[in-house]
Give the backbone structure.
Amino acid sequence: MARETVLIIRDIIKTGMALAEDRIFIYNQDYKIPPDRGLFVVIQHNSSQPYSSINTFDSVNNKEKLSVSLREEYTINIMSRNPDAMQRKEEIYLALNSDYARNQQGTYQFKLAWFGQRLINVSALEGGSILNRFVIDISALRSYDKNSDTLYYDDFTYPDPISGL
Amino acid sequence: MPLPIVSTALDGWESPITISTIVQTIVDGRVSEVITNSSFQGVIQAFSPEMLSVKPLGERSWVWLQIHTKTNLVAGTNDRIIYNGKTFKIMEKYDRALNGYYEYHLVEDYV
């Protein structure tokens, strides 16, 4: 199976911002975030909008060829108790348009929006914990395909002209 | 003035405690949990009413435990442990090595 888009985006941001392995992870895993003041980045998948779905027959290998193309929406959360998130939040955009990001898109054959949508300050959600937290929504265009065995017609039976069977 | 070594106060009160420590790490963006079993000598007891009274109102009804031991556990704040079949989270680790002991505060983990 192809590498998940969310993991590729993680690789891109991790490399672009030079983050340690335990500083950037995927959303919703019951992870107990270490109680320090440093920077964390969390990436979550929000939705996928299909815009193409194709089923064709590969007559050479006699396989069913399925493919679906999607626009995937992701949210990147960047947070810290110290000012790091506030000072480094723009690096998300820089990472998304880096050479490494372009190489990853070539390697995995998908398209990433060079710049996402508006960067929003959601620090207020954390209330008294005084966390600096920002979110950026980004889009990716990606196709998934699968080839599998299928039933097909390779023999035709003609009715007997006399008996009709 | 040297700090007093008070670890001898635990002698006679300690009993064997067996826990499983759950340590979370991030591997390729995913959480990986490593569970390590360990046994040590220590004193485990419930929080005193005074200790509970300083907790926020909604947290006083949770199960809070404290451990006093001469053993420096591998687990630290924010790690989870399994004790008597229940999962607890280490909320505080007081390193009193200079006094000869370590103190841990646990709260029952909700999942």
Observations:
- The CA atoms of residues 13 and 104 of chain B lie 16 Å apart.
